[in-house]
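Table S2 (continued). Query chain:
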Amino acid sequence: MADVVVIGAGVVGAACAYFAARAGLSVTVVDRGPVASGTTGAGEGNILVSDKEPGPELELALLSNRLWRELAGLGGFEFEPKGGLVVAETDEVLRTLTTLAEAQSARGVEYAPVDHGRLPDYEPHLTRDLAGGVFYPQDSQVQPMLAAARLLEQAPGVRLRTGVTVTGFLREGDRVTGVRTDRGDIPAGAVVNASGTWGGEVAALAGLDLPILPRRGFILVTEPLAAPLVRHKVYTAAYVTDVASDNEGLETSAVVEGTPSGTVLIGASRERVGFDRTVSIPVLEALARQAVTLFPVLADRRVIRTYCGFRPYCPDHLPVIGGDPRAPGLYHACGHEGAGIGLAPATGHLIAGLLTGKAPELDLSPFRPERFAA
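Corresponding output:
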């Protein structure tokens, strides 16, 4: 019998398995698809502190940022500590950005104001029609699929079972004692729900309500470019607003960044349309227009592909992390929306601590699973 069964082989599930195994627990990871086949495989790999206001998510992000830099020592996946540049179209927006950065800095976020004249020092191809920006050196980028695979490879003794669908839970009274699957029962001392966008569906198998909903987003990928045109992660102030929005309708804000392979990734869109994967040409056109507005040099570059993913949206924009008192033995690590890749190590680290009886480094009450019951 395993000490822990982790449901989900995305980057959050991989981080939970990695830290639990490093803490000495025996771990089995199950997923109905391959490793990183869900939201992780459709992500850009953002590790951001810049887009988070002071509060519990920022504290989680700062812990995760430190852990990602330590995990980068494992090797085997792309990790770029390249920094993020948030830009403002007007002086008023720039003042708002600067005020946010000052508040963030009180919690340990590093930043540097960038006036209009210094923007080309950071991004030579950026449009000159901007008032300025704020540079965040702690923002980073990771190749999420490789990172998830590497964490699972490096987790001592972890048993990975893909192509296995969880159909229910084993119970002794109220307590969860394992999972039922289409390949047989797997008993365990504890179960971690790291199912991302499908975390609510998995919780429902235990008779629990977690209001996690899919929020669709598209990404454009350009042809590989001979010379890097975008040095950092660059996005407009509107991105911060969109991340915190409760709007079900379409929202787009320019996010542009290069990759080690020479391609440029262009986002970001958000809309709640269920699990509809239909390609939306108007959304792609809007993303392309916004990217060219920021980087006019991209106007004559070709887009070679596009893809979409579903972010696990929670109504209060905070992930669900911790043990569920409604079903002892069941822990949740899901609902991170678009920040799951960035927040994965901290989530896994904290879950492993709970599983081994350690006092958490952060106050987990804002993330508690039962907070939606009221």
